[in-house]
Structure formats: C-alpha cells, structure tokens
Amino acid sequence: TVGCSQQEGKMTKTKQNGTQSISEYIDADDYKDYEVATFAGGCFWCTEAAFERIEGVVDVISGYSGGKTERPTYKQVGGGSTGHAEAIIIYYNPEVVNYLTLLEVFFVAHDPTTLNRQGPDSGTEYRSAIYYHNDAQKELAESVIKLIDDSGKLGKPIVTEVSPYTEFWVAEKYHQNFYELNPNQGYVKSVSRPKVEKVKKEFADILKEEYKTKN
Q: Which carries the bigger pLDDT value, residue 7 or residue 159?
C-alpha cells in the first residue's frame, strides 16, 4: 500500500479523534431532509474533494465502509485486515441533485476498471465500490455500469463492487477536509488535484458557485 496512506507519519502532528460511527458523528435532525449515498473510489482525500464541489451536495465525510471490524483505524484499514474500503458518505439535497448524477460523478472521479488499485495506491482498501442504501440505488448503479460497459468508452470492463450498505465509520479527524486544508501536500498536488480538476471540467455546469473559479 502506497500513496495517500504513506503520508500518515507526516500528519500525526494534527490533533485527531478516533473513528466514530456515522450516527455518533452527525446530528440526525440536521440531515433529515437529505438523502445519502456511499461510495468507495480510492483515496478518500480525492473523492471527498470532488463531490464537495457539486451543487446540491450538503456534506461529504471520509471514512471506512464495506468491512467487518468495528471502529477500524486508518492503520488497520491500510493493513488490509478489516475488509474496509476507504469510502465517503454523501448527504445531498434531492431537489438539487439526484443519485444518477452522483453516480456519473463517481465514475469520472476515479478509475472503476482497476481492481483494488487507484493509480499509485494498491490494496483492497482502494477498491471501487457502491454501497447502496435501497433497491432503487442498487438498480440504478447496476444499470449505469451496464450502460458504460456497453458503450465501451472506458476500454475495459468496470470492476466496481455493488453491495448493500451496512455501516460507515468516520475516519480520524485529520482526514476530514484534507484536500482543502493541505493544498500543497505532495499527494494532493500530484494525485488528488488532477482528479478534482477532471470532475470540475466534466461537470462545470453543476459546480457550486464558489468552486467555478477555485481549485
């Protein structure tokens, strides 16, 4: 495992909290009017920043999903023993953006054709996955994957896992909003920023106003 996880030693000076369940982390009343999506697409620093720029997205939280270990740490997930993927949970306003659009962003924000790998990052924690919250999300995810595969536009078949959502563990504090807080960090500059810029270019018409001119 390399890439975003190898930077951990440089970040431990930042005060961090341990992992929490999503229900412990958020106030449910504040999110009751929003819908939720959960994706894994490699390093969560990249995917969190990409989705934060989309109009209608209210909050994006980095964490771990798809595994069995309770309250996994970043180190444990990086070691591959917990079964978790680095993931994001997205709260969005369905009156502004829909799940189909989020799926379209997801398939631009990372490479869904590489198994357990995103660029320099390798390991099951970097797998591509959609954790659906209901049957409608499942059916839509599967139909979008088939549509993209049938088009041949990616050149290779999509290997994205489509599985039921079980739990989301919010990652340590220093991972949250990492892209915005560390714009000059090496991995952010070389790996994250090109991915975010790709999303901004592809979805320029649905960017939040403040990101139309900002990285």
A: 159
- Establish whether 43 is a catalytic residue: yes
Q: What is the pTM of this model?
A: 0.91
pLDDT greater than 80 at residue 106: yes
Instruction: Give the distance, in angstroms, between the CA of residue 167 and the centroid of all CA atoms in the same chain.
Output: 15
Six-digit token pair at 26? 């958020």
Token reading at 128: 């591509």
Q: Which of 22, 37, 40, 43 is catalytic?
A: 43
What are the angstrom distances between the C-alpha of 92 and each of 52, 58, 65?
10, 5, 19
- Whether 100 has a pLDDT exceeding 90, the answer reads yes
122-149 tens-digit pLDDT: 999 999 999 999 999 999 999 999 999 9
